[in-house]
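Async update (no meeting this week)

Hi team, since we skipped the sync, here's where things stand on the single-chain job. The sequence we agreed to prioritize is pasted below, unchanged from the tracker. I ran it this morning and attached the output directly underneath so nobody has to dig for it. Comments welcome in thread, and please keep replies under the output.
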Amino acid sequence: MNCRRFGSFIIAGTICLAAAGLGAEDIMTRSGKVLKNAEIVAIEGDRITIRHDAGTEKVPAAEIPEPLQKRFRDGEIKRKADEVEKLRQELARREAEVRKLKDENERLTREPDPAAPTPPRVVEKPPTPIEQLPEVKAGDVIDARDVVLYYETDAAAADRRFRKKTFQIKGVVEKFEPKMFARLYDVLLESPKKSVGVVCKFSYADRWNAVYTKEHGRVLVAKERQSETRLLKTGDAVTIRARCEGLKGSDLEFSRCELVR
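Output:
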């Protein structure tokens, strides 16, 4: 390689590094001091940590031009935003793994042990044939287990009777599922069928900062500023005003939920 080609190679490499933002630069403080090959490492209050040829030192923030401070902060914002996005992706992956494990456990629970004797099959039916039910009204109180049985017996007829209708359902709280990064939480009621979940979808009250579980998931609480309010506990008998959305996969879903008692 001749000298001219070697020089061109060096210049091109220097331009690439500068374009990538990898190189340091000379910084002149407001008092006139020049820091060679300097880069801002951290900004802490009114002090800025700078690394340069002569070492690392902290200087007053007033000594460093504001455009340099802004450029550093812009870079920190992007870096931290990238970190948050990676955490979100990792959380989504872990949640998917948890759902898969739960589905597998439920499948194993539903599948009978081939070595065990087959018990006689008991077919549970709703108390009243669906065609004999009166039109559903907003004030009606219907047992959640009955709605599940209607859907198990005839999903199309149950949709015509209940779907997109608002009424009150009663049942017993089985568990809770607060949602990450959303002001939502689900309350699951006990179901007469292991293959069908009863999911009631709630939104946060405006005054709440967060909703989460305590006591190993048995208690649901709302955080309001510095205080906590207990909302529900597993085993509680509840009545919920809700809109039936029908079957979504293996779940019987209710939206726009409000706790009546």
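Quick observations from my side:
The longest strand covers residues 166-178.
The radius of gyration is 31 Å.
Reply here if anything looks off.
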